[in-house]
Amino acid sequence: MRLHRLFRTWKILSYTVALPGVAVCMANAYMKMQAHHANHVTPEFVPYPHLRLRSKRFPWGDGNHSLFHNPENNALPAGYESSHH
User: Fold this and answer.
1) Cα–Cα distance between 64 and 66 in angstroms, integer?
2) What per-residue confidence (pLDDT) applies to 17?
3) Half-sphere exposure at residue 78, Cβ-oriented, CA atoms within 13 angstroms
4) Residue-wise over 30-43: b if at least 16 C-beta within 10 A, else e?
5) DSSP conformation class of 16
6) How far apart are alpha carbons 82 and 77 in whole angstroms?
């Protein structure tokens, strides 16, 4: 009987404390992400010689883009792909 009561207490605490806590944390993270993206400015491309070195081609695509390449945030050796930079 005591084990059943303990299980029921933790179940109630999970639904009344843990789930709303996760929801509040998710809402906070979403709002911070929106605020960050509203003020985000991509820096001007500077072709430093020690960055973006390619000693061999990547085995996918055209060999110049990384696996998780984002044209708005990741520069290639020649610069950004997007025209708004």
Assistant:
1) 7
2) 94
3) 4
4) eeeeeeeeeeeeee
5) I
6) 14
Angstrom distance (rounded) from CA 6 to CA 10:
6
Is residue 66 within 8 A of residue 74, CB to CB? The reply is yes
Phi, psi of 79 (to 5 degrees): 130, -170
Q: Helices marked H in the chain — which ranges?
A: 2-13, 19-39
- pTM passes above 0.90: no
DSSP state of 2: H
Distance CA 72, CA 41 (A): 11
Give me the chain's average pLDDT, please.
Answer: 88
Buried (b) or exposed (e) across 15-28, using 16+ Cβ within 10 A? eeeeeeeeeeeeee
